[in-house]
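Much of our argument rests on the idea that a fold can be written as discrete symbols. The amino acid sequence and the backbone structure tokens for this protein are reproduced below:

___
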Amino acid sequence: MSSRHTTTIAGSLLTASFSAVMILSFTAVADDQGPGSSKGGKVIDEAPAGVKLTTLLPGKISVDNSTRKTAITATVKNEGTKGSGDIRLLVVGFDGLQVKGVKGCSAIAEKDLPKGSNSGFSCAVGNLAAGKSKSYAVDATFDLSKTGKICLPVQTSDGKKTYWQQGPVPFGTTNPSPNAPATPLLLGTDNKPVAPGGDQLPKTGLGSEALPLGAAGAALISAGAAGLWWAQRRPRGRQQA
């Protein structure tokens, strides 16, 4: 085989290999959030007859490793047979996940945020008709050196009742990819931090031995505590044990 022919073959192989890498890289950062999931959701206060409210979060998100930015779609849905009445959706971030903005919604004042959260927005949904849903575009950042969780409560417009609450539910990965353009995270997965000595999760959030079951994050998903982190803001007679 001539040296020229050998060089041509080697060049072709290199080109094919480079093309494959480019295709794989593009696929890895594609913004495909997959089907919505109500994982980590539960009924808190009983809704009016004929009203069945739930929320949906994407099954996966992608975090830009250079900017830490990510996008999340939050959806509230009425699966009942009657209109919901005037309701609102809250979008709240915990630990490494910080909510920077929700299109069409207002930021929750720092003094009104639930204990343990770092950010939150309130979305005035209004009356959601039977069988209808409404989605909100959420801009957020995710610090991959930490765990990160999000919470979606659906409340009456005055906040006195919480008909449904999803979370705080984690996004994360057990296979960090710090050298890739982006890191894909899955809903319902505790994050394995991308950091030196990242074999252990930081002592925050779910799974931490440093936090008792009744601590801020765990209390929100505890059936015994009913997950009502707005309870302390209610009249004393409405607080739950």
In short: The CA atoms of residues 221 and 227 lie 5 Å apart. The longest strand covers residues 117-127. The helical segments are 3-29, 216-221. Confidence is low (pLDDT under 50) at residues 2-30, 197-228, 231-241.
